[in-house]
Structures are given as C-alpha cells and as structure tokens.
Amino acid sequence: MAETKTLKPNLKNSKTMQTILAFASLVLLIIIFTIASPNFLTGNNVVTILLMTAVNGILAVGITFIIVTGGIDLSIGTVMTFASIMAGVFISKLRLPIPLGILAAILAGMLCGFVNGFSIAKLGLPPFIATLGMMNITKGLNLIISGAKPLYFTDFPTFGNIATKPIFGIPMGVLVFFAAALIAAFILSKTIIGRYCFAIGSNEEAARLSGINTSSWKIGIYSMSGAFFGIAGVVMASRLYSAQPALGPGYEMDAIAAAVIGGASLSGGEGSILGTVIGAFIITVLTNGLRILSVPQEWQMVVTGLIVIGAVYLDIARRKIK
Asked: DSSP code of 242?
C-alpha cells in the first residue's frame, strides 16, 4: 500500500512536468519567431494561427481518447473530409437546413469511428490495419459522393459563420475548438469513460478481468472520437466555404503529433487534453512561423516529422526510466 501511495503523486508530478515543458516549448517558439520576423506576432497572424489550430486541435482532442486506450487512428483526416462532404450533400445539394447538415457530418464521423472500433474490438484487426483501411474507404467515398468536385456553400452564407464569425474578436471556430477541448477534458478526467480509457490503455487484460467490457467500450470510444472528427469537418468546410474531396490526408500526422507532444503515450495509459491543446498550438506555431520565414513546405514536413520522432523517443525513454 505504501508503494501505491507514493507512486500516484510521482505519476501526477511527471504528467504535470511534461505539460509544463510542452508549454515552455510553445513560449520559446513564439519568442524565436517573433524575433525572427516582425510579421509573426501581428493581429492578423494571431487570428490565422488560432483558425489553423482550431481544426487540428479538434482532431487532436478526438484522437487523444484513442491513444490513451493504446490505439491509433490513421483515418481521421479522410473521415474529417467525409464529414464535410456529408454536410455539403445535405446543405448544398439537398438544400436542407444547416443544423441537419451539421448533424449529418457528426453522425458520419461517428459511423466511421464505430466501424473502426468494431473492426478492432470484434474482428480483432490491429488498429493500424483497420484505420488504414478506413482511410482508403473514406478517401474513395469522398471522391465518389462529391463527383470529385468541391461542394460549395455560396448559397448559404451563414454557414461560414461557424468558423469565421468573430465573437469578442475571436473567430467562432476557435471557440468551438475550446468548447470541444473543455468537454473532452471533463470526459477524460471526470467520467467513467475517461477512467476506462486509462484502464484499457494501461492494461487491457487486467481491465477485462476486472469486469470491464473492453470490446464495447473500445467501440464506444472510437465512435465518440469520430464525433470530434465530424465537428472538425464542419469547421473546416465552414472556413473554406466548401467541402474539398481531396483534402484530408496528412491531417492525421499533425493530430497524432499534437497529442504525443502534449504527453499522450502511444503505448497507452497516459495523456491529457490540456497537453494535447498545447501540442496542437506547438504544431501550428511551428508551421506558421516556418511559412512566414519562407521555408519551403517540404522542409516544413521534414521538421514536423522529426518532432514526432523526437516526441515518441522521449516517451519511450521516459517509460524506461519509470
């Protein structure tokens, strides 16, 4: 019992320290890019950073639940696009009310998450394979349903308010991101869903033996995460005033990177929404800063990839020390 009591504070302190280090890294990046370019810390660019972070942040918040369970989802980018396409079909093609289009997008994301969770929990497919398959399925469906053409919301100008309408100077899409993060933080830290996420990720067999129906909970967690991906699709479509069928691939790497940088372990059992939010801002600030400094996009991708590798390596090293 004594060992258990001393272990919990150490884990908590480790988690807090990792969040502090991530925040310090974010502040350091902001300072570096502010010194490097006078165009970085301007009002317009700050708004751009917030809007860029909104979509990736919502995706990262959603995948945090999956990573905490020890899973992975490679389909989140194309699922996000699938959700935006469904919103386009309901609103632009079928001329249905905007709320129905939003609901269709969220349900589309949840459906994809359900299929992923079922494939993993019931069919026994590895998460990598199951979600890779979903990535290709939704990538194809996006082109088929849209006719390989963007679906525009020009006849529905209020749809753009979801992402861009300023409220107290902050774009609504950013507020949607913050709201999603607050809800996710509550679920992960204060509800039975969060407790079971950590239990499954820490030791799935022990969780099963303790009476947790791990298969059903996995399906539910993947479905819930899909709802966040659907919301991200709505915000993205609103920001672009269109549903772009070719958009999506690549977003999964930024979202996973944000969660890992923020302290989520790819081995499962660890993660926090606050850390993920900080990680999302780190990715966006880095990308935006390199873009302002006219660094070619291919080198931006190299830098992001190196950061992901570094974050995963640090997580492995930290676990070995523990």
From this structure: E
Helix (H), strand (E) at residue 211: none
- pLDDT tens-digit series, residues 215-235: 999 999 999 999 999 999 999
- Residue 203, judged by CB atoms within 10 A of its CB (0-12, 13-18, 19+), counts as middle
> How far apart (Å, rounded) are the C-alpha atoms in residues 47 and 45?
5
Indicate the residue type of 49: I
H/E element, 165: none
At 151, phi and psi to the nearest 5? -105, 120
Report in angstroms the alpha-carbon separations of 181 from 65, 134, 137, 254.
Answer: 12, 25, 28, 17
CA-nearest of 310, 75, 57, 50 to 167 is 50
**CB neighbour burial string for 76-100, b if at least 16 within 10 angstroms, e if fewer:** bbbbbbbbbbbbbbbbbeeeeebee
Which burial class, exposed, middle or buried, applies to 210 when counting CB atoms under 10 A from its CB (0-12, 13-18, 19+)? exposed
Q: Which amino acid is at 18?
A: Q
Q: Note the pLDDT tens digit of each residue in 31-46.
A: 999 999 999 999 899 9
Closest CA relative to residue 188, chosen from 272, 109, 259: 272
Closest CA to 319 of 73, 131, 70: 70
248: enclosing H helix or E strand: none
Q: Which two tokens stand for residue 80?
A: 């996000």
d(CA 295, CA 301): 10
Q: At what angle do helices 251-261 and 43-68 cross, to 10 degrees?
A: 80
Under 8 Å CB-to-CB from 131, ≥6 apart: which residues? 72, 73, 74, 75, 116
